[in-house]
Amino acid sequence: MFQNRLTKVYKHRSKQAKRMGISCYRLYDKDLPEFPVSIDVYGDKVCLSEYRAKHHLTEEEHQDWLEGTVDVIAQVLNISGEDIFTKERRRKTNRLAQYQKTGEEKVFFEVDEHDLKFLVNLSDYLDTGLFLDHRTTRKMVMSEAKGKKVLNLFAYTGSFSVHAAAGGAEEVVTVDLSNTYIDWAKKNFEANFLVDHKKYKFEVADVKQYLHTLTPNSFDLVIMDPPTFSNSKKMNGILDIQQDHAELINLTLRMMKPDGILYFSTNARRFELQETLIQASVITNITKATTPFDFEGKLQRWCWRMIR
């Protein structure tokens, strides 16, 4: 059953991706209840994420099931099992889980997106370093960045920043709380020969506190993709994006030039935008417009384009 489903979807998706010049895409996303996994293709490698469910299997039975799943993927995609990396995803009980490593050995691979290079890690962290569902949004940022001052908040590994720089931005500032992610972002810039310390700046900082240090009317284009919740010891207080997003967005808008553009996104499942509290002249829901072909009907994030 799983093999038939995977064979069918791989034939279709791989053709779409090839036609669009895409080498990283989501192949399968919990299509069958008996196989609660997502399968992401990263060039010639695969990331298999298992969403641990109450499967009533013993550890031995579960291991057999997982090995069988890997075997089917290897057969259908005609790749070695050694090129399939497995992760287990649980509903977060520890809100710091996004920063926790799942292993000790760090192994990075270079992949392509929009003729740019990005380093991904399929074995050592919960996430890979490149969120595939924002592929279309990154292309939008790239097309709008020419000659602009760009600010990327909660930047993760800086993929939006790289796209902005490659699009001809006058300046790109990349901000994240994690030293690990900022170092990763710097390596992504270096992989694309984007090395200019005057144009491309990196800040390890609590975004809310950092915004208070900026001069109003400074940026033309801002990207903000915050976590749903964070209580990192490096922050002052906590961040709950449902409660805090209007304040955070308004603070960001004040740092932007008149008619500046803000891309705001969140993957909070029950998120409701408090539009009446947000001091933007135009607010457009672009969730559907930024949904890539491989996430249609399965996307679990929201995205808005706001104009100051």
Structure write-up:
Helix content is 29%, strand content 27%. It contains seven helices and 15 strands. A seven-stranded mixed β-sheet has the order 9-8-7-10-13-15-14, with helices on both faces. It has a four-stranded mixed β-sheet with strand order 1-2-3-4. α1 packs across α2 and α3 packs parallel to α4. The longest helix has 19 residues, at 2-20. The chain is globular and about 60 Å long. The termini are far apart.
What proportion of the residues is helical, as a percent range?
A: 25-40%
Distance between the termini: 51 Å
- The Cα radius of gyration reads 20 Å
Indicate how many domains the architecture comprises: 2
In CATH, the architecture of the largest domain is: 3-Layer(aba) Sandwich
Q: What overall geometry do the principal axes of the alpha carbons give?
A: globular
CATH topology of the largest domain: Rossmann fold
List the helices and strands and how they pair.
Elements: H1 2-20, E1 24-29, E2 37-42, E3 45-51, H2 59-77, E4 84-89, E5 109-113, E6 116-120, H3 135-144, E7 149-153, H4 159-166, E8 171-176, H5 179-191, E9 200-204, H6 207-211, E10 219-224, E11 229-230, E12 239-240, H7 241-254, E13 256-266, E14 282-285, E15 302-307
Parallel strand pairs: 3-4, 7-8, 7-10, 8-9, 10-13
Antiparallel strand pairs: 1-2, 2-3, 5-6, 11-12, 13-15, 14-15
Helix pairs in contact: 1-2, 3-4
